[in-house]
Amino acid sequence: MVYVFQGDTLVVRNDVPDARLNQSVDFDTIADIQDSSLIPFTFPSINNTLPPLISVVDIAPETPLPASLRALPMRQALSLLTGEASVDGKGFTGRLLRAYHVAQWRRTSMFCGTCGSRNTDALDELARLCPVCSRREYPRISPAIIVLIINDSDQVLLAHNKRFTNGVYSLIAGFNEAGESLEATIVREVWEEVAVEVRDIRYITSQPWPFPNSLMLGFTARHAGGTIRADGVEIEDARWFSRNALPKLPDHGSVSRFLINQWLHRRFV
Hints:
By secondary structure, this protein is of the alpha+beta class. The chain folds into 3 domains: 2-107, no CATH class; 109-140; 142-264, Nucleoside Triphosphate Pyrophosphohydrolase (Alpha-Beta Complex). It is built from 5 helices and 14 strands. The strands form 4 sheets. Strands 3-4-1-2-5 form a 5-stranded mixed β-sheet. A 4-stranded mixed β-sheet has the order 11-9-13-12, with helices on both faces.
């Protein structure tokens, strides 16, 4: 299987409908593109239930696509592919996430971070290898928490981030800092962004999220005190919402929507 990317898009055949995106693009199909650099990079899969190898081709953003192909934004592709219960990186979606993550990493790791020489690919593992100073670089993975906060009235705290599409509200999230536990990250991020305190932090699930290189770690927590106050820097608005009065939510396929749906269907005790 060959996965083809162009920047932040997945390249698929025009004759493949959205409902059948789990079909890869054959390399023979994209051979029509006049670009001699389109050589597949092959690396191990980490899912034992599927073929053991994954191949990716990364097309330069300025390269025109033939009429037989179309570029689909990766986030849109994931929302079409991923069901409510499928956020764990298994199956085809997991292979696609891994392929996209590796393709981005190879694009941004062309040069050694120590001496600046041009990297090569290591032959014995998935790594970049500097031929001058022998430094190895591995795909970057940045842990980030995302937390569904519930108050004593069984309402959920949802916030609108400045980067979101207009009207979309989601959960509080943030990156784990050096020397910080995940629980401490939750307490800090929630306080910084909406000025409330939380208790009873509980881990629920995780999701690989290569936008650009995150591992999302999903939690629930209870409101312990404080009145919501959006920080005005990242968060423009935040409120408590009841099940019968929800705003526009994130797309399916994200761990945030998965957690919200679990609460919505009363699957948390």
